Amino acid sequence: MNSTADSDLFDRLGRPARMRQIASYDLFAPGLRPRLDALATRTAARLHAPVSLISVVLDSAQFVLGRHGVGGWMAEIDGIPAEWSLCAHTVLAGRPYCVTDGATDPAHADNPLLNMTDMHSYAGVPLIDHSGQAIGAHCVIDVDPRTFTDDDLALLADSAAETMRILDEHRRS
Amino acid sequence: MPPSQDQARPYGLSRPTMSDAREAVHRVHGDSGPRAWAEALQAAGLSGEETAPEALDRLLAVLAAGDEVSQLCGHALQIRAAMHTHLSAAHALTRS
């Protein structure tokens, strides 16, 4: 059973209009994942980050559509509970969201995801669809504390725009 | 917290229940949530009162074959179930 705080988060993420917008894309289309994996790889290289993800944030979980630098069981699950998802913060903020050092950030220090991985810093930009809905996020993750620059966020925003162009090719008619 | 409880909720994460699934289906479908839930239960041959993990698995299979919003709702629950399964197994290994 979920906690009240989690249920509130799921309610905010799972608004029917938002879920319908996400569902207007064929996220399981063959060929989509390799393209988004390649884009995540390019973003990671441009921002000199070991990990990059392209995700939609559903009501109770982040669904990873494209990734670079993630292997093993995390890659097999291809998702994260919403209450542990930093991309959920990006989506709900509707603008770039950064964590310089999760280990010392009171908002994230007890996040289990940070405790079970080496991740320390995060920068994400929302994926905004044609209706203005933040359907997900494109992010980079670093294993060291890091202050992301405006140039970093501009590069990430460029890749997010390209992500939306790719997703738009997979909109259901 | 007793060890059994730790293993049931590794890192505070519970395996999704039928009650969680009901909440999720109602949440994402809004006004049509009760109907969507009733149809999913009927298709899965469930009452909604089941507590066995296999019942949720049957429900998730129905959601995966349903309308697009139900597919995503079910996929989110599937991610949570998979994460719980992995973490529970890892937790059991570290305690053995």
The averaged pLDDT of chain B comes out at: 90
Measured by DSSP, the beta-strand proportion of chain A falls in 15-25%
What characterizes the major β-sheet of chain A? 6 strands, antiparallel
Rg of chain A (C-alpha, Å)? 15 Å
Q: Helix/strand-derived class of chain A?
A: alpha+beta
Secondary structure category of chain B = mainly alpha
Rounded mean pLDDT of chain A is 96
Unreliable segments of chain A (pLDDT under 50, ≥5 consecutive)? none
**Using DSSP, what is the number of strands of chain A?**
6
Please, what is the oligomeric state? heterodimer
Strand content of chain B: under 5%
Describe the biggest sheet of chain B? none
- Low-confidence stretches of chain B are 1-5
N-to-C series of helices and strands of chain B: HHHHH
Which fold name corresponds to the CATH topology of chain A?
Beta-Lactamase
Q: Treating each run of at least 4 consecutive H or I residues as one helix, how many helices of chain A?
A: 7
Instruction: Give the end-to-end Cα distance of chain A, rounded to a whole number of Å.
Output: 37 Å
Total domain count of chain B: 1
The rough form of chain A would be described as globular
